Amino acid sequence: MGRLDEQTFESTVAAGCPGCGSAKVEIKSFIDRRLLMMLADPNDAGRWVHDGEKFIDGTYEIACAACKKVVFEHPDCPRCHAEGGLARALGDTSRLTIPKRCPACNEIELLALALVPASARYGGGETPKPKPLAEFGDPGHHVVAFACESCDAATVTQKCPLCDAPGPLRVRP
């Protein structure tokens, strides 16, 4: 579980801003994004593949959308809770490199799963629509795993993909 459980998350976003009273908040979270890759380059913009629990699990900041007052923040890694890991997660590039070809069968197309910082506004009955804060290759965009659909070969990072802390990683919802 992240630093917020579902009940605390819901009450925090429902309360809005204690400073200006705005009901809209901006939520920043590391969430799952799938990319189709060809020769180690993205073949599409990617698509979100997270659920609500993973969105809450990766939340590292909630701030008022109007006055920017921060109502929740935590400096630890959202994935493994390593102390001070958020700065490394946001500032470092991915540690897992996607090869140009599948190491097992030489296929040129691979699927990649990444944890990506995203921002979503919530309040006033809107459903949050995440916007990526980093693109493939940028600091903050961390490949967690890649797989080949042709031969089912897969590679998964063994350390924390966000901050590089040693395993074991905690279980995600």
Query: Helix share of residues?
Result: 10-25%
| Helical run tally | 3
Low-confidence stretches: none
Instruction: Give the biggest beta sheet.
Output: 9 strands, antiparallel
Q: Give the CA-CA distance, first to last residue.
A: 7 Å
Round the mean pLDDT to the nearest integer and report it.
Answer: 91
Label the structural class.
Answer: alpha+beta
Strand content: 25-35%
Number of domains: 1
Number of E strands: 9
Order of helices and strands: HEEEHEEHEEEE
Task: Name the overall outline.
Answer: elongated
- Estimated radius of gyration: 17 Å
Write structural notes for this entry.
This protein has 173 residues and is of the alpha+beta class. The protein has one domain (6-156). The protein is built from 3 helices and 9 strands, in the order αβββαββαββββ. Strand 4 and strand 5 form a beta hairpin. The longest helix has 10 residues, at 6-15. The chain is elongated, with a radius of gyration of 17 Å.
Summarize the structure.
With 173 residues, the protein is α+β, with helices and mostly antiparallel strands. The protein contains three helices and nine strands; from the N terminus they run H-E-E-E-H-E-E-H-E-E-E-E.
Keywords:
173 residues, alpha+beta, 3 helices, elongated
What order do the helices and strands come in, and which of them pair?
Layout: H1 6-15, E1 25-38, E2 41-42, E3 47-48, H2 52-57, E4 59-64, E5 70-73, H3 85-91, E6 109-122, E7 131-132, E8 142-147, E9 154-156
Antiparallel strand pairs: 1-2, 1-3, 1-4, 1-6, 4-5, 6-7, 6-8, 8-9
